[in-house]
Amino acid sequence: MDEIIALCKRRGFIFPSSEIYGGLANSWDFGHYGTLLKNNIRDSWWQTFVLNRDDMTGLDASIFLSPKAWQASGHVSGFTDSLVDCRNCKFRTRADHLIEEKVKDIKVEGFSVERLTKIIKEHKLKCPKCGKDDLTDVRCFNLLFETKMGIVEDTKATLYLRGEIAQGIFLNFKNVLNSLRVKIPFGIAQQGKAFRNEITLGRSVFRTMEFDLMEFEYFINPKDGWENVYRYWQTEMWNWALSLGITPSKLRWREHEIFERSFYSQKTMDIEYNFSFGWKEMFGLAYRTDFDLKNHMEKSGKDLRYHDQKTNNKYIPHVIEPTFGLSRLVGIVLEDAFTVENVKETQRVYLKLDPSIAPVKVAVFPLQKDEKLRKISGHLYENIKKKFVAEYDNTGNIGKMYRRQDEIGTPFCITVDYQSVEDNTVTIRERDTMSQKRIPMSNVVTFLDDRI
Where in the numbering of this chain does the Aminoacyl-transfer RNA synthetases class-II family profile domain appear (predicted)? Predict the structure, then answer.
């Protein structure tokens, strides 16, 4: 993990946030290549689950919702985590994470604070930072970030940064029905920021306070049953993960036990990824029943039932919810692609990214700092970048240029040399195998198109 974080910073994927001021815990900034990678994954998700389907609509709801929405959804009262402090060094951490890190074969999600405190004392767990056996009793804290709305201090109203992006979908359910005239079964999808006041143990972008989510609520008639729809979305989620090039042997499904499930879920399963620090959640799939629409209907007094025109019946739809953490997924893709191999007694590091999501698709080099080579390679680069994200490098050291592109995951590098001047051919080098072949310059775009 340390090697991956170092590469991400060195090559401009991910930076520690506010680093010049000593950093801010659990906060990361995406650099140029990290942003390109994240956008490519995001666009692939939107294309797969929204644009390629006739039963899905899009939405971009506000980050700020009425505080009544979070009260109705249960987040104000039930969206909590367990917290423990060190009396010696004041280090703060999540009690459940501390226990699961230090005590073998134990899952504590859903345990009471009293039970968590008892486990910490029985196993004499120490502070992860200073090593002292001086931890406070466990207490709960709410994960929603509070903020204020208004100009005059005395009249400011309390608002919350959204802890999930689903509630904006439920609040707009009737608007979508009235404006698009969709029919059940159908889904409403969106992508956007969410915020949770979580205490984490680091691990880069795996768990942060501010993160990007991609998810949709798929509305169904409860009389038709939910099990088949649930299994269908399991398959679709798994197939999309594989399309990103993630190693299949590092993925598995795991069903939540009853005490682990969120208060709104009747069944939840995760696709887990085998990180360098163990199996952890990548995607989640929840059957939320009619919990959300029913609560918002009761609390708002608005009719959120679906009117079936064929049967003239009205009912509250049930919901299947696939959730994808985009920020976390960027970290997973980078860890999965991180490859180290020995080549002629030297070490080569490269990111084995699928070409479809690689930040840069192709790099163009002149072999040497020669005006003829620069002119030809510059012209070729201008043609390529009309269709693909490309880079041009004329530093003149072919080994260093290859190394840099390997570390940002560029699948193809094109070199223009003196033979190019004579016969209009170039050398294309493939990242993973380092194999090279010569092709006519006129065939370059077609060659890349077939492989990307």
Answer: 2-355
64: left (phi over 0), alpha (psi -120 to 50) or beta: beta
Residue 127 lies in a domain: yes
Domain with 253, as residue range(s), is: 2-79+144-336
Q: For 53-69, b where at least 16 C-beta lie within 10 A, e where not — what string? A: eeebbebebeeebebeb
- Both 330 and 391 in one domain: the answer is no
Q: What is the DSSP letter of 64?
A: B
What is the chain's mean pLDDT, rounded?
Answer: 91
Give the pLDDT confidence of 200-238 residue by residue, as tens digits.
Answer: 656 777 778 889 999 999 999 999 999 999 999 999 999
CATH number at residue 408: 3.40.50.800
Instruction: Output the CA torsion sign for 302, 305, 306, 311.
Output: negative
Distance in angstroms (rounded) separating the CA atoms of residues 325 and 281: 9
CA 153 to chain centre: 37
Q: What's the pLDDT tens digit per position in 274-312?
A: 998 889 999 999 999 999 999 999 999 999 999 998 999
Looking at the structure, tell me whether residues 220 and 259 fall in a common domain. Answer: yes
In a domain, 114, yes or no: yes
Which pLDDT does position 155 carry in this prediction? 60
Residue 109 banded pLDDT, cuts 50, 70, 90: low
* 352 within some domain: no
Same structural domain, 291 and 182: yes
Is the same domain home to 28 and 52?
yes
